[in-house]
Amino acid sequence: MEVVSYMPGCTLKTSGRNFEKSAITLFDILGVTMEELDRWVCCGTTYSLSSDNIMNQLAPVRTLLRAKETGRRELLVLCSMCYNTLRRAQSLVLHDKEKRDKINEFMYREKTTFDGDEIRVVHLLNYLKDSVGFERVAKRVVKKPSDLKIALYYGCMLLRPHEVSVDESSEDPTIMEELFSLCGVTPVYFPFKTECCGSYQTVNQRDMVLSRAERIVGSAAKNGADMIVVSCPLCCHNLDSSQQRVADTVRGFRKIPVMYISQLLALLVGADDAGDYRLHSVDPRPVLKEKGLIG
Amino acid sequence: MNVTLSSSELKKEGIEKTAQLSGANFFSCYQCGKCTAGCPASEFMDIPPHEVIRLLQIGQIEEILEKNSIWICASCITCAVRCPKGVDLAKIMEALRQIVLRKNVNYVHPSSVSKEELRTLPQIALIANFRKLTG
User: Is the pLDDT assigned to residue A172 strictly greater than 80?
Assistant: First the structure.
């Protein structure tokens, strides 16, 4: 059985636990074991954009050191924000010698240094594409809901900046479309797939996030989607939990469930359920039952 | 708005600090407005993103800091990947926020977040928000 080192991040242990649980189920069925790193730390969630801030790079680099200690070359990440932060920290260490030296000076309690080229930070989508193979995933599909239509939402942190993008195109990515089409699910036209959900502004600019949810979910619904599929626990929260408030004020707004990539994939390859449905604001069970994905 | 245009305006500490922290050359912006056109938050800003750059070009950093724009930016990086001149506006916004926050000023006060919100918001929302908006 293949084994891959894995870093969950904080939210996958709480509100995003359906993401982790369904990914483990999915990987079990695909014959891959996800081995969680010992002593990983919070990635910091947002990559520091100011040039002199070394401090915010230390947490992701420590996690990369833990990954290096496993002796494997890859670190699997599911959460988009962890992916972006770890991937950019790795890239910074690799390309900026001065900062690399300074960061390693802070690591005096570590047994080894991190030079940037020991570990490749890999997102779930790229792992499924390059290490497992989309064809191999598609071969495992046992449930074929012929008329299930999904809106594939990438958000920001999987795509920007371009050098960390999970797809060759950060403007019009198609990696998720490729995967789900092979698995027999139809992606709908969704021009808002790379538009920001409002991110952390959900804490203090709630109106802005509600307005984003109205447009993004509204676009998916108008294009006939039965559900939105995401890779980020923050996008998931913003798009899912905002819908009732939007529906209360916007006439004709149709609520649609939001699910993680691995939740839908796990169901397609034969998992009995997609986790704890109480974590969803918009209950996905009616759609899943209608399409024959759950009993 | 009364604007004094002189080379000394551009030598002001804040302007140089913004250039240094962001690593961006905002003088190469030719005001095409693509950043504003693609910005998901611009409708909530007092002044749109391309005007933030214009004000930097003419040394009017105080004008920017009086407005809410830098606090509305959600760092989605759409502006930076689309800029035809390679000006990283996301980094400029971060630099401007840092100039304020490093004076021990908080834009968001963690104590003002209600217990209900603390219970329902995912950790990544809170950590990212406090990282971006507190000093």
Answer: yes
